[in-house]
Design a protein that fits this description.
Helices cover 79% and strands 0% of the residues. With 187 residues, it is an all-alpha fold. Helix 5 runs parallel beside helix 9. The model has no long low-confidence stretch (mean pLDDT 81).
Length: 187
Amino acid sequence: MSKLLNKPPSIDQCIKQEGILLLVAVQFLTRLLGTYGVLGLVSALLIKISLLASMPSSVAIVALIIAHTASRLLCISLLALLPYGGEVEHAKAKPIAQQLTPLQALFSSGWLLVAGAFVIYLFPSTVQQIGLSQWIVALILALLATDYMRRLLRRHLDGYTGDGLGATQQVSEIAIYAGLAASIPFV
């Protein structure tokens, strides 16, 4: 890992080692995103895979749907809680850089309700199997993770940015998976 932090592998190194396509992809991503961006992305993906693999498959499907939707809602909450961290006139996505209205927040919350109804309709036995205490643990962890990211973004950037919102979404989604995987064992 220390070699990866210092310098991305060259094409010759990729050919000599196993997994040519993977290493070429890593080299491309490191040049595009930066070494720490790629490490963060790969780490988040591996953590998600390991947490979901620790659950029964039906629970993992429900967790995927709800965690993805809830983490985006928590991310959107930062739009209402924080100002934009950069200059609005230089923002790539100007509508995002403006303050969230209460109607937009209410509409955003509706998607979690739609996802919840979808999951209850398609997987009623799995929803009963998970249990309320596991959902509460997952929600508390996700709220703590989102609040941590809110304080971090306020301290370092004086508000949110697109990258900060993306990081918040990833961290809160992992927190939901961790809460579901770590709480009461599945029967």
